[in-house]
Amino acid sequence: MADGAPSGDARHSISLRGLSKSFGQMTALLPTDLDVRSGEFLTLLGPSGSGKSTLLNLIAGALAPSSGTIRLDGKDLTNVPPRDRGLGMVFQNYALMPHMTVFDNVAFPLKVRRQPTHVIRGKVAEALARVGLTGFEKRKPKQLSGGQQQRVGIARCIVYSPAIILMDEPLGALDKNLREQMQGEIKRLHQDLGTTFIYVTHDQEEALNMSDRICLMSVGRIAQLGAPGESGELIIER
After folding, report:
1. b/e for 213-237, b at 16 or more Cβ within 10 A?
2. pLDDT: is 188 or 230 the higher one?
């Protein structure tokens, strides 16, 4: 997540070829080919153990693949460290630093990249405005609701303009009403930014409501890939 992040157009694509992951004798992800289109909202949908989070963590660089390649706009990322991939990650558990204010949590990626103070202030203000948290800069995470904490996590992710935004079950810890509200907010954010999103969930309704395409995963492989239809069905590509 990176100093070497692609610049210019906010839309970037990912290409996976033969990507797999095994843990000892257990295969978590069978050799997988997948092209994530520039600017799309792609959801990896499946139950626990289907391989969806493994696939996302391979793209992020949190796991090393057993085989295969990962390319961002044609550039090989397979062995590139996570911080140098130019990708952003939003977690289910928010991953906020409790001793830091909202401002400092969101500013952290920019401070790591040694951005000037005036740049940090401007980018943090813009990111917080995008997630509806202007005025919350001085609060600590414990003073926020679950939905507000997740918004801080999203603001921290987008503040440095990553090439691709990865989301691993970001709404899983929220109640039903708040989850539905956040679905709309994340979809609007995707439309506003124009950035490519890869989103993991086990919730079929969530996937159908938010996605341009859905990659349905089962026992470590892609079972189906397609776009949500008007009647809630999946229009299959493969």
Report:
1. bbbbbeebebeebbebeeeeebeee
2. 188
Boundaries of every domain in the chain: 33-86+163-227, 96-161
Residue closest to 36 by CA, chosen among 198, 206, 228: 198
pLDDT at 233: 72
Q: Residue 105, exposed/middle/buried by CB under 10 A (0-12, 13-18, 19+)? A: buried
Residue 8 has pLDDT above 50, yes or no: no
Sign of the torsion formed by the C-alpha atoms of 181, 183, 189 and 192 = negative
Q: According to the CATH classification, is domain 33-86+163-227 in 3.40.50.2300?
A: no
* Position 108 confidence tier, pLDDT thresholds 50, 70, 90: very high
